[in-house]
Write a structure and sequence with these properties.
Length: 316
């Protein structure tokens, strides 16, 4: 979810689900250690709880990044060893680390030594031709004893040779049974399922079948009301799914505060296309965001002009 789940996206998603654990986009540990920490890690208190997702393969560097993330107020430190993009492959981290479980374990131990926060790992079930359960089990056998607090599993193998990141989210077959089997064999381990989850009832069913959590990515981005549905199904039966106009009204003061810090309205509204997903007027809403809110001089108050459209659900 690099370039997707930034601070503005997370603030928006928090309005839909008060209790969900939100994750940052994957941030390379070296960038945190050597770069502009404020720009990379600054976030609004309203986003909490938020997990900091790191990419990297150097235990010492990851430990430094974990220490910085802890001081920045995050709720969890997560190591991503499941991302199949070219950027992470060329940097020898992400999904290719599944072939180096001992190194992953060393990274986990190094981070645990410097933070009191939960340290978790996000992985795939396999890599390239190794998508058998024995490979996945062997990875867990080495990484789990290092002291992870949870294993978050995208239930597909990562195919680094020949598939794009988008294809890696769609072509390798989902093998949910692997994740359920791991949980059955390790009942004490917190196991969270990721991959292909785009329906609230189906996601909740995995929880009923014994898993400890579900993680949603692009499905929640494109249809954030799905987060509210899960909030109601899993956590609070009385939770009311916010109406689009309520979301827009809540985002206006946030956008004003961001504007005072020099942030453009478009950096916020680019994440809001899904607010009207599945409703009449969705196309007009997206057009408004693309043509009006995206203007360089657009002020936060611009969103007020869209409220009649959003409330009535009518095409503009």
């Amino acid at each position: 979810m690099m370039d997707w789940t930034d601070r503005h996206c997370r603030f928006l998603h928090r309005l839909y689900a008060p209790h969900a654990l939100l994750y940052t986009e994957m941030i390379v540990a070296a960038a945190i250690v050597r770069g502009d920490v404020r720009q990379l890690l600054d976030h609004d208190a309203g986003e909490h709880p938020v997990a900091l997702q790191l990419g990297g393969c150097d235990p010492a560097e990851l430990a430094k990044a974990a220490r910085i993330g802890t001081s920045a107020g995050y709720a969890e430190i997560n190591l991503n060893v499941g991302c199949p993009s070219d950027r992470v492959k060329n940097g020898s981290f992400g999904a290719c680390l599944m072939l180096k479980p001992k190194l992953v374990a060393d990274c986990v131990r190094a981070m645990r030594d410097v933070t009191h926060l939960p340290v978790t790992v996000k992985c795939r079930i396999g890599i390239d031709a190794r998508d058998d359960y024995e490979f996945f089990q062997g990875f867990a056998d080495i990484v789990v004893p290092a002291g992870i607090d949870a294993l978050i599993v995208h239930a597909r193998a990562a195919i680094l040779a020949g598939l794009s990141p988008k294809q890696n989210r769609e072509i390798p077959p989902l093998k949910y049974a692997y994740v359920h089997r791991l949980k059955q064999e390790r009942p004490e381990l917190t196991v969270v399922l990721n991959g292909g989850l785009c329906d609230g009832a189906a996601a909740a069913a995995h929880l009923s079948d014994g898993l400890d959590g579900v993680m949603l990515g692009r499905a929640a981005y494109h249809q954030p009301a799905l987060l509210a549905e899960l909030e109601r199904r899993v956590i609070d039966p009385d939770w009311q799914i916010p109406e689009p106009w309520q979301i827009v009204e809540r985002m206006i003061p946030y956008a004003k505060a961001c504007a005072q810090r020099g942030m453009r309205l478009h950096s916020i509204t680019r994440h809001m296309h899904g607010v009207m997903a599945g409703r009449e007027g969705a196309r007009a809403w997206r057009r408004f965001l693309s043509e009006v809110a995206a203007r360089p001089d657009a002020a936060p108050e611009t969103l007020f002009s869209a409220l009649p459209m959003v409330k009535q659900g009518l095409a503009a």
